[in-house]
Every structure is written in structure tokens, then in C-alpha cells.
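Give me the fold.
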Amino acid sequence: MEATAIPHLGQAASAACTMATNFLAPVKTARQIYENSMLEDDPNANSVPPTCPEDRATPRWGPNHRGAQELASLYSGGKRNQEKICVIVCIVLITLNMLFILVRIRLENLSGMVIAALCGCITADFISGFAHWAADTWGSIELPIIGKNFLRPFREHHIDPTSITRHDFIETNGDTFAVTIPVLCKLSWDFLSLPEPDIQKRFFWICYWYQLTIFVALTNQIHKWSHTYFGLPSYVVWLQEHRIILPRRHHRVHHVAPHETYFCITTGWLNWPLEKLRFWQILECIIEAVTGCKPRADDLKWAQKRS
């Protein structure tokens, strides 16, 4: 009886090890990262692996890529003005709501505020991933309004990843600040219109929505830091190294062509579980089956404009 049980036990252990190895396998190998992305510490030098002589003549990445140059030239004065207005309005609303919250903080509310912050951070990470996936994967620069204004930066970013490090505060954060404005307006209206007992009853959710807007607003700044290899403040490096915000090495996985994974860019906490669930791939299969559209077709078109 014991003799027959041992082989079965060994087979079960072997199967469990195989499952664990497959499930815990890295999303991208070191070789895939090396051959299909810019070098990790590339300071805007358009570096490529030395095994690719063709890339020296017709750059695959960087500011000398013709597609990247064309996309950068589409950044308009009107878009710049929209970003300025959104940044100013957002900062005013964030400050106003912060004051409303600070005067209502009670000792018994502190634990709820911490939980709300954690929930807001995780939600922001998912929102960043969903928005990033949608803009990377679908649509075209030729689409009215959203094409040149909102999809263009995503196309440029894949063929000149460190271009974001050359953007100032307005260009980096204009769009993420903009999407928080409706929520911040609603919070301000509630503070000004609701009686105090109702505000106290909703205080957890108010803190959740407020802190969610903070993390969403900061997402592109965090993203920029993940591409900045030199001169970062020590506190940013500490936050990256302790996985509190998006780490540089972690985000590099997304920049392995064809950029089909690791879309979450606030903390990156959800990237691994979503990848293992094949969340994005399943969504892409459903959308392609229903619409016939190929994922990342427009992204590939711009990447191929090398010379």
C-alpha cells in the first residue's frame, strides 16, 4: 500500500512544481527585454542592442525615429492651453477639498481614511491600466478630437519612451489632472450643499474619492519618474524601491515590443495578477471577435515609420 502511494505522491509533487513554475514564470524574459526594448538606462540616446546594426541606420526607438518626430510635431498650442487650464483648475479644487476634509478630521476617522487611501490607490492603479490599455490598443491618430489630442502621446511614447522625461509639468500632467475635475467638482458641491451630519455619514466615501483623484492626478508624474534614470529625488527612488509607486525595472516590461502587457502605471501592483488572469488578452479577443479590429494596429503603423 505504501509502495504504491509513494509514486503517486511523487507524481503529485512533480505536477505541483510544474504548475507553480508555469504560473510564476516571468512575463518577459531578460533576453526578450534586452532584444525588444530600449536599454534600461538609456538617457535619450536611442540606444539599441549591438546585435542590431539595422537599428543604427533606421532607429527603432528614440528622438531620431521619424514616426516619433512626426507625432511630437502634432502637439498643438490649443492642446497646450487646455492642459494649462486643467492643471490650474485641478490644483484649486484639490486644495479646496483638502481644506474641507482637514477641518472635519476626527480621531475615530483616521483608520477609515487609511483604508480609503489604500482602496483609492488600488482603484487608481486599475484605472490607469484600463485607460493605458485602451489608448495603446485601440483607436487611431486620425480619429476626430481624441486622436491628436489624447491618443497621440501614447503612440509617441512607445517609439520614444524617454520623451516623457523631456516634457514639463504641464505637458506631463495635463490629461490626468483633467480627468479628476468632475469628481473634485462633485466633492466640492457636496461639502457646500450637504448638512454636516450627512457629510460625516459619507466621510469614508468622500475620503476614498478624494484620495482616488490624488493618485489618478499623479499617475503620469509617477510614470515619468519610471523613465527618469538620473537625478531623481531620493524620496522618489525610495518609493520606487519599496514598490509604493511604479518601479523603473517593473515598468520596463511594458516597453518590450509589442507593448501588450503590464499596463498599470500608478503603483503597478495589479500588473502581475491581471497578466496571470489574462485579463487584457481576453478583452482584446472579445473586442476583435465583435468588431474585427486588430489590437495595436495603429501603434504598429507608427512604429514602422523608421526612415
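The longest helix spans residues 110-137.
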